[in-house]
Design brief:
Elements: E1 2-6, E2 16-22, E3 29-30, E4 35-40, E5 45-49, E6 54-58, E7 65-67, E8 71-76, H1 117-126, H2 144-149, H3 172-187, E9 190-198, H4 200-217, H5 223-237, E10 243-246, E11 249-252, E12 258-260, E13 262-264, E14 267-269, E15 272-273, H6 281-296, E16 310-314, E17 333-337, E18 340-347, E19 350-364, H7 370-385, H8 387-390, H9 396-401
Helix pairs in contact: 5-6, 5-7
């Protein structure tokens, strides 16, 4: 029996995916539920498992865009599984030797080096002279494809050293991210406000409790739980930051679903911590760890990356001192964390060295005014600099045991 494997729908509103990579080769024997391909949608990269066991025949190439419901491979379920002693041999046509006539030398004519009108336009846009392009068309004519593939000169090539270039199609996920970033810049009135946070109180708490916290809960006491809970508190104080624009309407949420930007093997992903307002320090740290592992292993689902109401991104893990993060639509705000550096600071009239982090809030000014944006970031700063009182109800032992 020949089974036709069709592209399943990876999520609502997705009509097309791209074959990112085949994990098997044409003619391989595959087991049921074995991952056979990685497919890119505009939201995530997902694995495609075999629906049945058998010999597979691929019907699409890597890089092909295929519609949801389209056949991408066939599985012969009646084929026996190969053994070490008797591998399956599939018959292939015997190649017939073809006599190749020597290619006649190409003649140079008036068409040699002449660009077609379409090619001429492309070359003009790139600033490339026709004399720098070798034509592959009839009699050496420069075709549009030649013009598209042409790369502008990067100066005189040195005698030694490599100057190769690579042209690689971006994944569907990366193309969608690029499209969304450009849309955010052009469709929102995005501004950024900055502040600084003295991280010493959090350092002191982590030094005192991190060992017992990890022994009890099996996860580390990191910075994300403090920042997430500080953001939850600030969102309750300034609900406009926890809202979005829908046409002529403002939609406010009475819950805090916090998106966290994590770097995965396929690029930036933004899984969501659901109902963060109901989570303890342990709950946040456990969820951050779970989502980060799923993103790293390519197992994150589209449902786990949609529906957030506010985003936190941490460029500090890569060494960023300060940045202006881009709002994650349809959300209206995003908080950027950065690296922690010992800096001189005035404390009680004296200059002391303290671990300082710069923080940035980018927001959509169409829906969030300056008072709310600055007030929100100040509220985050206050909670981080006084976590025992504002995040732990003056009882850190109890707060970290939950």
């Amino acid at each position: 029996m020949i089974l036709e494997m069709k592209v399943p729908s990876p999520g609502e509103s997705i009509t097309e995916v791209e074959i990112a990579a085949w994990l098997v080769e044409d003619g391989d024997y595959v087991e049921k539920d074995q991952p056979i391909a990685e497919v890119d949608s505009d939201k995530a990269t997902l694995e495609l498992p075999a629906e049945e066991s058998g010999i597979i025949t691929l019907k699409a190439e890597e890089g092909d865009a295929v519609a949801v419901g389209e056949v991408v491979c066939l599985i012969d379920t009646s084929a026996a599984k190969p053994t070490g002693d008797a591998p399956i041999v599939t018959e292939t046509p015997v190649a017939i030797e073809k006599i190749v006539e020597p290619e006649a030398p190409k003649t140079v004519s008036y068409a040699t080096g002449t660009a077609s009108p379409a090619a001429k336009k492309v070359l003009a846009e790139k600033g490339i002279d026709t004399s720098d392009v070798k034509g592959t068309g009839k009699d050496g004519r420069i075709t549009k494809e030649d013009a598209i593939k042409a790369v502008p000169s990067m100066g005189t090539q040195p005698a030694n050293g490599s100057r190769s270039t690579e042209r690689k199609k971006m994944s569907m996920l990366r193309r969608k991210v690029a499209e969304r970033l450009v849309a955010v810049k052009s469709e929102t009135a995005m501004l950024t406000t900055f502040n600084e946070v003295n991280m010493q109180p959090i350092f002191d708490l982590r030094t005192q409790y991190k060992e017992t916290f990890k022994a009890k809960h099996g996860v580390g006491l990191g910075f994300m739980s403090f920042f997430t809970l500080a953001v939850v508190r600030a969102l309750k104080m300034y609900p406009d930051v926890n809202s979005m624009i829908d046409g002529d309407f403002q939609v406010k949420h009475d819950f805090q679903d916090i998106s966290i930007a994590v770097s995965g093997p396929k690029g930036l992903m933004v899984p969501v911590i659901r109902n963060a307002e109901d989570l303890s320090f342990r709950g946040v740290e456990s969820e951050v760890k779970r989502l980060a592992i799923r993103a790293r292993d390519g197992q994150i689902t589209i449902d786990e990356m949609t529906g957030g109401t506010f985003t936190i991104t941490n460029g500090g893990v890569f060494g960023s001192m300060l940045s202006t993060p881009i709002v994650n639509p349809p959300q209206s705000g995003i908080l950027g964390m950065h690296n922690i550096v010992n800096r001189p600071m005035a404390v009680n009239g004296e200059v002391v060295i303290q671990p300082i982090m710069y923080v940035a809030l980018s927001y959509d000014h169409r829906i969030i005014d300056g008072r709310e944006s600055v007030g929100f970031l100040v509220a985050v700063k206050e909670a981080l600099e006084n976590p025992v009182e504002l995040l732990m109800d003056n009882n850190p032992t109890k707060a970290l045991e939950m």
